């Protein structure tokens, strides 16, 4: 389940041959950094719980108990847990769907007081991980199961589709459901639904779909691949949206029995969204109409693998959308296809171009031309028919993020965004 | 209380002469954008609650009820509320301190699995606003009280100090307390404490302190000033960390009786942190050792006032810190003094420089010189005395963010960061 459940991180997985050691190392490093200055405050403070503080700090800094403390602090369940009061999460619907109440926070909304797409993506990541958390399958790190760890397997994600019908607003309470399911023979998918807690109205839907065929690639050496919720790929993987692979051999792998036993009991047949998987996202050429160049990752954009965080990709994609579209339209959907990771030293170009609906355009043009010939405006145009339809219909943009290479640009992400009029 | 409670936003406050109208406008705009495409899904979906969805959507899109719906969706309390189960917040300690349980989310941590400073700042903002939310004083927007609205008053914040002793880790449950108090005659402060839910160990402390004297400026015309949690200032305001001002006349204002009546009952005498208010942050010169230039706000960095979000300032400041310091040290404290807002078209430079402790440096150098003269290494150096002390003592950096002007750079933020060895 793990990676459809959430995402795994190579930072931890790369060393999973001796994971126990690494858990300790990670925790030790982490705790050392916060413990070495042992609880002495530079400035005296007037706080009633100071004595408790000193006591707790002394417990925390006891030698040898660092890793244990880290685990205690995280308190990852070792068996299935049905309710988590702090996360406000519960396993529902036959014991497989994870549901969590979330209040939209003040810093998660944009200028119009509605949640940003980035916040929504973050909440998807959070709930997916909490699903694995509650399942008792989370071994360590960011989403791999115990079985995956034992098999040295990591997940690689390449495709994500999100549809937002209504944006939740600041202070609103929403309910997020997430679950996993089978897709074909070896595939998996994870879905999400966000709905209003008060009315049940569905605000947003998303899926990451798994395809079972990897026709082109059976071995991908020399490439650092890591998995992430909507991760970057270091390689080109046609027609595949999910991959499980061995982190050592870099061989793609079917899901081993051990992992199947862990995750299959969680599969259900339920789809939040019908994907546009068959609509290929074309690769934009360098002559794309809208181009923003010289985008550089900042240090704070890097995730725990020192790679660019996926939310940053979405930001970069949206940077290329013309201002007037952002003012008149609202993002209603996004599809992402990751092709290659973006490193900290990459210089990125964000391209986008409006998808012209040639068919509809032709009809209007023809109709309009006829009207001009006849000296009158045809009914279809005059009566706010096609024109209004053109005005109101959603717009679609095709996107490409690419990194400057020595000789040519290299694809990072292809994307598609859909926009409806405000 | 409001702004020490939280922050007010000029986007809403600038129009507070007819606030009711504006609330409606804002909500209308907001809801329209999500309602116009009336619940019809581009793709059919298999979701059991679809019927509920359609029904709720139809309720939502009824003409005339848009603003009301917005208010319903936010559900801001009109009187003091002691507990909020969704926020996991409660008013405690004599009915004035706000306490909230928070689980550190997966996307709030950095590569080392600990919460980033930015996440901590965001949580401060969130809990401050939830404090006002629970108080029943929140009128609309982001933190102003009803009395402030009636008096056309907005808060302006200029100084913030944060001290992090331990960083919470991914999945850890923390408890955040926040409260407000008096400072001098007309001043106010808001404090925060983050502690481990499990042990009570205090992880972080923060304050925004108010000084009551505004010696230099009594009137600030022509300047768009807005308030924010740790806001930007459009003007230079020496020796002042908090200001209340009339949004129309731009005159600074003492807290009017009406607002005092609202907020004074919430004041308590308790300090989370002893501020270094007397330690002036010097203005760095353009010869600073570390400079990162040509920083440009992205569209996604802009807040609801179309100004650069304060968290972005912190990111920019940290961009200038040398890599080796980030590797060997951990940020233990930060002080921010905002001077001027940063607009979307500004080109920003981030400067920083290590604060040399001349005194200590001289001692070591003298001691070392003496040793060389005498042909042996003195005890103080050899015995890991001063050298170890130098090695282990916290480092402090002075920061400056400035915007490129026509003739000269203009200060945006002065800052100080403190770093301890990992």
Description:
Two copies of one chain form a homodimer. Chain A is α+β, with helices and mostly antiparallel strands and 422 residues long. In chain A, 28% of the residues lie in helices and 26% in strands. In chain A, the strands form three sheets. Chain A has a twelve-stranded antiparallel β-sheet. Chain A has a three-stranded antiparallel β-sheet with strand order 6-11-12. Chain A has a two-stranded antiparallel ribbon with strand order 4-5. In chain A, β1 (83-84) and β2 form a beta hairpin. The longest helix of chain A has 19 residues, at 117-135. The first copy, chain A, is globular, with a radius of gyration of 24 Å. At the A-B interface, α3, α4, α5, α6 and β9 of A face α3, α4, α5, α6 and β9 of B.
In short:
By secondary structure, chain A is of the alpha+beta class. Chain A has 13 helices and 17 strands.
